[in-house]
Amino acid sequence: MKHIDIADIIRSQEYVDQTITVCGWVRTSRNSKSVAFVEVNDGTSLKNIQVVVEKGDGEYKEPRVGMSIKVTGKAVAGRNNTIEINAVPQDIEILGDCPTDYPLQKKGHSLEFLRSIPHLRGRSNTFNAVWRVRSVLAEAIHKYFQSHNFVYINTPLITGSDCEGAGEMFQVTTIGYSNDYKNEAEYYENDFFGKRAGLSVSGQLEGEVAAMAMGKIYTFGPSFRAENSNTPKHLAEFWHVEPEIAFAELDDVITTAEDMLKHVIRELLDTCPDEMQFFDAHFEKGLIARLEELISHDFGRVTYTEAIKLLKESGEEFVYPVDWGCDLQTEHERYLSEKVFKKAVFVTDYPKKIKSFYMKQNPDGKTVAAVDLLVPGVGEIIGGSEREADYNKLIAAMEERKMNLELYSDYLDLRKFGSVPHGGFGLGFERLIMYTTGMANIRDVILYPRTVGSIR
């Protein structure tokens, strides 16, 4: 169907005085005696285009909100450098009817209500803007890594090992519930893979395999966590950005994380001014200024031990008590980034008991070369580490956690055959979108949120 994207018309004056065709959904419709006004949006732009209908003597059937239509008319200059389309009734073709019980008849619906209609909420201004920001951020991430010699790798979604060693995996099976087997071992022997399998919680382990051949790689795909967590920051299915860098130590990981984050935020601010102004006006006052401030300074840096000392000496009454060895909670992370450093800050060298088995053990025997990036308003947004490259130390860490070494034979082999210092980090893509839009609930930055007890 030949037509012009509304985004292209809005961006250029070249269509003025030309006869053009647009397609889209009716956002508003006003009717008077001699003229009617119909606002149309095709999803390519946050802004609508207004169709001015000169009714004349022709029969005019007013399009209802939600209908899809095709309009052919003359593009004319409107107020404030806008472009409108002048048309007559016979220039409007209804492509798809819409009954009067269309859920988005009026403006001002709550986000909770819109979550109940995920198949339609993309037609609201809020989600029109969210989906576009998501697309631009994804492109910016790919552009950054591709321009820095990283190779894009697709890691498996079905795996026989648990990257985090925590066991919070969705099981993958073709058998399902059954009483036909004597024990668990017999059950899995008869399953599709002949052994226990689950959905990947992270592509990191396989990413390290690729990095040991390609030098620098990144993954960008879905991860799955079977956590019984129903908070505004957790999903059972989310998108994960995970670079792995060979011949790199913790400082190199930190440098890449800061550079990448600044790049993608700059790209977003430059590419989506309308969307960012919308979020600034309706969801977080001062959002654009906050992001500009974030990328205009070098990020701070503090060790976990120093951070605990700062928190204990703060005089604040935290809900979760602070002591060396505790895992930092969001309230601690936000205090450090918002009150102490007043900017993004990297926290390094966490206690090894609260971090994953694969992190490089520091000489003190108590901490590992881990890093979390804390940002004002959110808390942690990136987590990473230098990986343990020493075969014997990695074996010891895994045995201490009583892990099944047979499930990690490929991973262990990397430490036997030409091991190198290497590291990487993980960025939760939805949390980045939340941070850059001011959206408070992670369910509102993904098309179909998957959470405990909820799927459709």
Sheet-strand content, in percent, reads: 15-25%
Shape: elongated
Find the structural class using helix and strand composition. alpha+beta
How many helices? The count is 13
Largest sheet, described in full?
A: 8 strands, mixed
- How many strands in all? 16
Order of helices and strands: HEEEEEEHHEEHEHEEHHHEHHEEEHHEH
Structural write-up:
This protein is an alpha+beta fold and 456 residues long. It has 13 helices and 16 strands. An eight-stranded mixed β-sheet has the order 7-10-11-16-15-14-13-12. A hairpin with a 5-residue loop joins β4 and β5. The chain is elongated. The two termini are 32 Å apart.
List the helices and strands and how they pair.
Elements: H1 6-11, E1 19-31, E2 35-41, E3 49-54, E4 68-77, E5 83-87, E6 92-96, H2 111-115, H3 125-146, E7 151-152, E8 158-159, H4 184-189, E9 198-199, H5 204-214, E10 216-224, E11 237-246, H6 250-271, H7 273-282, H8 287-295, E12 300-303, H9 304-312, H10 330-340, E13 345-351, E14 367-375, E15 379-386, H11 391-400, H12 409-413, E16 422-428, H13 429-437
Parallel strand pairs: 3-5, 7-10, 12-13
Antiparallel strand pairs: 1-2, 1-4, 2-3, 4-5, 4-6, 8-9, 10-11, 11-16, 13-14, 14-15, 15-16
Please sum up the structure shown.
The protein has helices at residues 6-11, 111-115, 125-146, 184-189, 204-214, 250-271, 273-282, 287-295, 304-312, 330-340, 391-400, 409-413, 429-437, and strands spanning 19-31, 35-41, 49-54, 68-77, 83-87, 92-96, 151-152, 158-159, 198-199, 216-224, 237-246, 300-303, 345-351, 367-375, 379-386, 422-428.
